[in-house]
Amino acid sequence: MSHISARPASLPPISLPRRVTAHVAHLLILGLFLIALAPLASLVVTVVSRGWSRLDPTFFTSSMRGVVGAGGGALHAIVGTLLITLAAVVISAPIGIAAAVYLVEYGRGALARALTFLVDVMTGIPSIVAGLFAYAVLSALLGPGARSGLAGALALSVLMVPVVVRSSEEMLRLVPSDLREAALALGSPVYRTILRVVLPTAAPGLVSGVMLGMCRIVGETAPLLLVAGFTDSMNYDLADGRMATLPVFIYSQWQNAGRDHVAYENRAWTAALVLIAMVFAMNLAARLWSSRKVR
Amino acid sequence: MKTIHLNKKVPVALIMTAAIAATLGLGGCAANEAAGNSPTTDAATTGGTSLSGTLNAGGATSQTAAQEAWRAGFQNANPNVTVNYDATGSGTGKQNFSQGGYLVAGTDVPYTAAEASGAFASCATGSTLVEVPVYISPIAVAFHLTGIDALNLDSSTIADIFTGQIQTWDDPAIAALNPGVTLPSTTITPVHRSDSSGTTENFTDYLAQTAPSAWPYPAAQSWPSDLAGEAAQGTQGVRETLSATTGAIGYLDASQASDLGQASIKVGSSWVAYSAQAAAAAVEASSMDAGRASTDLVIDLDRTLTDPTTYPLVLVSYMVACSQYADPNDGALANAYLSHIVSSSAQQAAAQNAGSAPLSQTLAARDASVVGAIK
Amino acid sequence: MTIAFSDMTASPTRTLGSSGRRVSRFFETGSRGVAVAAGGVVILALGGVTVFLTVQGWPAWTAASGLPQNASSLWALAGPLAFGSVWASAIALVLTAPISVGVALFLSEYAPRRVARVLGSVVDVLAAVPSVVFGLWGLMVLAPMLAGPYAWLSAKMGWFPLFSGQSSATGRTILTAAIVLSIMMTPIMASVCREAFTQTPQALREAAIALGSTPWEVIRLAVLPYGRSAMISGCMLALGRALGETMAVAMVLSATPGLVSLQVLTSSNPNTTAAFIAQNFPEAHGMQVSALIALGLVLFAITFVVNAVARRVARPRKEA
């Protein structure tokens, strides 16, 4: 990250209009930033104040099996979200980055054009359509009614890959050509140049892109409800059986509340709080890592 | 310019793995789940009296809270069985059942007689379709007016409000039905469901049967699109909009209307507020839909009842199953779970959690004889 | 701006020994193969979705009955919904674009590095908040808060076509939905822009500084022109999310399907395609399912057109 350095002292003083413009621009940009933060602040205040009441140990040590009305927890959904999200990242990140490398470093001709076309179109796919597609594929392969966490991860990958490709492509294009040329001139073969020069230089951007993709999918509800299903019980096996996730948990607690709807809503808000905290932690970790790696 | 260090590698995956490991360490198994009942236990080995296996069901969202109570009771009695209910909606539920994805399904809209005689993937040859009413939910016409908890509204007035003929609360038509109530001049904001739902279908069916001149639309799952008014997503969206807006009126599951003012509807010549008994009585007083198999207990709801002990604005939701499954273990599971659902204790549990009306004894007995024969 | 390897004809691998060259060639082919395979997998998966939507939705294109809302044809259904999608997303984009660029500039140019890192994560987290939670927040917090200002706007500025009509008593209008969408879009666009801005070559900045530029002039002369393509890319990613957003819109918006209206403050608003699919799919059967899937394809087409235009704008010289 680079900052605007001090102005060389030898230059003549800046005229008043330019100084004013610079200050106005500074204030404007600060203002825009604060405007962006305001809804976040409101959202966080809402989620924390409503989610606080159920932020107790039971919430993290219990599932919903056998629970009616108040009580219970979301351990099953927390585990499910971690496993499914991780699986989706493991599937999408290599494919997405490799596809972006192809587009930027190798891609010419029909394959590249088809890839660009499809990635563009897919960035706007409604999540429910991705879910329907994954469901159709799953039914064809494993028979109707098959549900698994892995299938959920695949549906999420359909949503995540375009984001990773598109943002990685952008980051790879920003790697200065001088670096590539310098490496090639030193006799480094293309693959080594990509692995040792291009990818490391773009690493923070790539990590950011993967994080962006992860953020895009971690809160998805509709495709998971269709292909990963919903259960009250624990399930650690990605390959077999329904798996609960936090967004589906939130959705079903809100949408299908029982008579004592406050108990259901509280669970939903607490789950939202936990989900946001988890994502924040992952995001911060990734950012710290990528910025330490390249400075 | 950037300097590149290649050797400091702390992969993100490692951090995430650590996070997962921490979670797993926190609770290798959930505190409320006994060690023995792995939820992914593979299919049924029905040994002796105890059932085991997984029963996957899904469908109508209306039943979700009731299914939660039924599931909990059933799983506590049969710790080696896991029951799942996906609240995917009636249409998806039936489709999954037809293709064999769900062993049993919940639906607000039963199969038509023609569909019911078709083929179903999980059923044995020669099996007939089982459809039993299991969930009776009164629909409340609820409103939000400061200081007024109850009003009398007949169906033509309700229709006029929702079609925009009546625009303010102090309209003479409303005042005439409510002598002695001081009505404000607040604008009426009618709220309907924006998603397609069984609740909307039953509400519009009620208006179409009882006030055909004021309500020229057919019964339908989605709201007539040429009507103005506020649209809200799901029961909870309607409840939230009603409680946030003074002057609003809407229709929703009665169990979710307890914080709001509720209208009594006109049955015969009396005003009837909703109650569980009256709702169940309305279902019992209606006749069976003709031309179906003896296991296909679809009710043709009569909204024009005149008996003041009935509340005909109700939603009836069904469970769908096969009378005979291709796999006997499936049959045993379906038989046990459906028998549990129609038992009086389960019906009471659903009333507690979902605010539904328990099946009357006659209905419950009829259901029980059908589901008890599932094999 | 970038020179791809395929453009560089002279291979410098000649400097290696013959066995090294063979190993090198092996890896060369291997790495190229991996990249091509990844591209192929993406095409297969995404092409699969397109084929799926086309095949499953096919019967609905010619159907005249059995469609959702008793529509007379799919076009009658799709047209107003497509308008709603584009209209809501366009309002959201107008709101989100300046804010996102401002956020990105603040984080890359003005904020101290440590602060920027934490704040950057904070903004990114907005992208991960589930739609349902945005929907809940929009429904419970934002909409009631906006009902008052909407009534004022409609009373004072009702002469302005967008603000005409009876203002909604609940605040659940298309403007509110667009605001929620813009909040959901901001982190995506801001993240892409910030990454690009921080990648501005130091040489460009220094050149601007050497000319005596103020910080704003550095931004104007070096940072913004360099990040132009990324800004447009960010817009497109954000727009993609807005077009495809279902639950948040479905929960916040009071929609009348089939309506085409530019008024942004009334109770009757056009519905969006994605929200309509989500609201009707659970109870759909037969032809209705086909129609909803066909609507998914329409949404695809919209996204494609929008993206194609953006590609053209972002990289006019490429692929010419």
Explain the overall architecture:
The complex is a heterotrimer of chains A (295), B (375) and C (320). Helices cover 73% and strands 0% of the residues of chain A. Chain A has helices at 16-51, 57-61, 75-106, 109-122, 127-142, 149-173, 177-185, 190-218, 222-227, 246-255, 261-293. In chain A, α4 crosses α6. Helix content of chain B is 34%, strand content 19%. Chain B is built from twelve helices and 13 strands. Chain B has helices spanning 12-26, 64-77, 90-98, 113-116, 155-163, 172-177, 198-210, 234-244, 276-285, 328-342, 344-354, 361-371, and strands spanning 53-59, 81-86, 104-107, 129-143, 150-152, 189-193, 230-232, 248-253, 261-267, 270-272, 287-288, 299-300, 314-322. In chain B, β1, α2 (64-77) and β2 form a beta-alpha-beta unit. Chain C folds into two domains: 2-43; 63-314, MetI-like fold, CATH 1.10.3720.10. Chain C has helices at 18-62, 74-110, 113-128, 131-157, 174-198, 202-210, 215-226, 228-244, 247-252, 273-280, 287-314. Chain C starts with 17 loop residues before the first helix and ends in a 6-residue tail after the last helix. Chains in contact: A-B, A-C, B-C. Chains A and C meet through α1, α3, α4, α5 and α6 of A and α1, α2, α3, α4 and α5 of C.
Number of helices of chain B: 12
Give the oligomeric state.
heterotrimer
Helix/strand order of chain B, N-terminal first: HEHEHEHEEHHEHEHEEEHEEEHHH
Helix content of chain B: 25-40%
Shape of chain B: elongated
Which band does the percent of strand residues of chain C land in? Answer: under 5%
Radius of gyration of chain C: 24 Å
Can you count the beta strands of chain C? 0
Interface with most residues:
A-C, 129 and 127 residues
Taking all residues together, what is the mean pLDDT of chain B?
84
Radius of gyration computed on alpha carbons of chain B: 24 Å
CATH architecture descriptor of the largest domain in chain C:
Orthogonal Bundle
Helix/strand-derived category of chain B reads alpha/beta
Tell me the series of helices and strands of chain C, N- to C-terminal.
HHHHHHHHHHH
Proportion of residues in helical segments of chain C: over 70%
First-residue to last-residue Cα separation of chain B: 75 Å
| Class based on secondary structure composition and strand pairing of chain C | mainly alpha
